[in-house]
Amino acid sequence: MDFKESTGLYLIAGGVILFVLAQSIFFLVKAWKQGKTLGIDKKKLRDAVTSSAVFTIPSALSVLATVIVLAPSLGLVIPWVRLSVLGNLLYETKAAGDAMTAFGQEGGISSVITDPEVFAGVAWVMTLGICFSLVLLPFVAKPLHKKVLNLGKKDENAEESAEKKEKKSSGIGGFMDLLTPAVFIGLIGAFVARAIAGKGKPETFGDGAGVLSVITLVVAVVASLVLEKVATKFKLTWLEPFVMPIGMIFAMVVAVVMYNVLPPEIAIFEWRG
Amino acid sequence: MSKKNKTEKSYFDRVHAWGRVSSITALCVLIMFPLSICLYLGVWPSLSGVMSGLMKLIPLYWSLAVIEVLIYTPMLGAGGTYLSFVTGNITNLKLPCAIGAMENAKVKANSEEGEVISTIAIATSSIVTTLIIAVGVLVFKPFLPAFTSSELLMPAFKQVQPALFGALAAGYFSKHWKISIFPILVMLGVLLVAPSLDAGTLLFPGIVASVVGAFAMWKLKWVK
Q: Helix, strand, coil proportions of chain A in percent (round to 5)?
């Protein structure tokens, strides 16, 4: 039996998951009670629960799809815990790849972990790499939140003037809206550029830029764009959270088809060696 | 001070007290995860391997953590902030969920009603996500060996990264295409000179180029 799938590891993961559930239930109960104290209509509170639950289902399924895609390389336990606690798709994929490379497993998440020591090392790197926000929150959240509440009170007394609004959007604060997308574009772009022009190891198939990596990349981009257009045009809101996972899985299916259909010398050709 | 203000103050203080405890507890539970794996499997990874992996992640992820805490805290409310940072998936799930619930309930984000609705929405979303992933993982478990040992599926798993980042790129690049072209060209240029550079290293010049390029375009009013 694969050590990554042993019952003990599932029990460890189960403990972490139970903790997350308990914490969510605690905050839910406390907020509900406070809502009643404030005299908020019960229907409003119930609506918040049902609308959030319905809204969450498609996105949660897309997170599950990512767990399953990462599973052949990492097993199910690490992606399960990492994407249930603190994680997100972009961070975890990069973290897993970097951690595996650090332990000499070239090819990142395209290769399979077979060494328990590498498995444990990847778990450490992925955990410690992502946990800084939890260190910051106890110090930063309260003062920051107090400031926001004071601003909210000021807003109630006086509407912000058009002149002030103009000044705010042309100040450096206006750039903050672009900062996060710019960082993400740099991050995603590195993997895109690598699939177009990166060099792999000569003896390994699939770790360098070549026919198959570019076909997969282009199909993923085009399929996702088409799906997004379809979802917007026909107002299919249920489809929106699935655009990314369907685009990704479709591109992987095309990779399998192309590998089997194209002449072998073309299918495995990697132009940088 | 009115009775209502008193209640408000004490509730916020209590939420922050619970939040601080929950963040620290979550941090401990999170660290217990790899520790338990080591104890269970009886292996201890080399410190140099862990440090080498962390050195690639920390400069980026810890800076992003600072940015995310500063940006998201005002939008999520106190309870919502602590919960969201424990359960993750903030941009794609918790934030839109909280904003949607507050809009439906017609309450402001920085009001006490907004605080309650946002916390309820994020807690519900966390519970539903955690349950769906847990059930999905347990259902999928028996089929995993067939996936990993399949010769037929091998090319698909070799191309996980182009598929995953291609799909992600479609969303980000189409929304922000003006600021995407420059960093991509810079990274392709870097790869022409140093083709063996892995993505983990390449992304640093990529992020610098992306942020500098976006700032220049914003200054020139090419983008808003």
A: 80, 0, 20
ipTM for the predicted complex: 0.77
The domain tally of chain B equals: 2
Of A127, A176, A182, the CB nearest to B210: A182
- What's the CA gap between A59 and A64, in Å, rounded? 9
Identify the domain boundary among B147, B168, B202.
Answer: B147
Burial grade of A61 (CB within 10 A; 0-12, 13-18, 19 or more):
middle
Q: Report CB contact under 8 Å: A40, B117.
A: yes
- Could you tell me if B143 lies within 8 Å of chain A, comparing CB atoms? no
Please tell me which of the candidates B130, B180, B224 has its beta carbon nearest to residue A189: B180
CB pairs A-B closer than 8 Å? 592
CA A83, CA A55: separation in Å to the nearest integer? 18
B47 touches chain A (CB under 8 A): no
- Answer yes or no: do B44 and B140 share one domain: yes
Q: Is A58 on the interface with B (CB under 8 A)?
A: no
The tally of domains found in chain A comes to 1
Task: List, for residues B45-102, the tens digit of each pLDDT value.
Answer: 999 999 998 998 888 888 888 888 887 887 788 899 999 999 888 876 788 788 878 8
